[in-house]
Amino acid sequence: MARTKEFDPDAALHRALELFWERGYEATSMADLVEHLGVARASIYATFGGKHELYLKALERYLETTDPAIAEALSQPGPVLPAIRRLIERYGKQSARDRPRHGCFVVNSAVELAARDPAAARLVEASWNFLEASLTSALTRARAQGELPPDRDPRALARFLVVFFQGVRVLGRVPADDGRLRDATRQAAALLD
């Protein structure tokens, strides 16, 4: 007779996400995961696979919670540019007040793993493509509604914002002058004028 799992895989995945987000992939050992999750090593392997598979599942979970929220914020009816300005401001403020310096899990994955880990790179790229598509759609709508001049390229502006957002997240990881983040945020918002 098959044994039932003695732990909640969803809760364990959430705890693994927290640990990987805090420490990164390389600095998190399997022993760290066993201790943090409170789950036996064999159960982790049986449920999630190895450390790498668990990391990818944690990154997927992160994307499931963050990407749709951005798309929803940008797809509301009415004027578009105020929603994009709020998103720019949110990125800047979150990065400035990220005092544990955890940053964004996607950006952390890009910096630590994407150059040498094709599976992690695919997830990072999928997230950035989703963000770019959401912004392009919103900016196209803004142009159609007369909020942006007709000569503005929604896709190019969306790509700039994706790069801006990721850069802000990287700067938020280090103890730096928050004035740099504030100034960059103001300049990015000014591009929408």
UniProtKB/TrEMBL annotation:
Pfam family, one: TetR_N
UniProt DNA-binding residue ranges: 29-48
Keyword annotations from UniProtKB, A to Z: DNA-binding, Transcription, Transcription regulation
Keyword Aminoacyl-tRNA synthetase attributed: no
SUPFAM superfamilies: Homeodomain-like, Tetracyclin repressor-like, C-terminal domain
InterPro entries assigned to the protein according to its UniProt record, in alphabetical order: Homeodomain-like_sf (IPR009057), HTH_TetR (IPR001647), Tet_transcr_reg_TetR-rel_C_sf (IPR036271), TetR_C (IPR011075)
MF (Gene Ontology): DNA binding
Domain HTH tetR-type: 6-66
Name of the protein in question: TetR/AcrR family transcriptional regulator
Biological source species: Actinomadura decatromicini
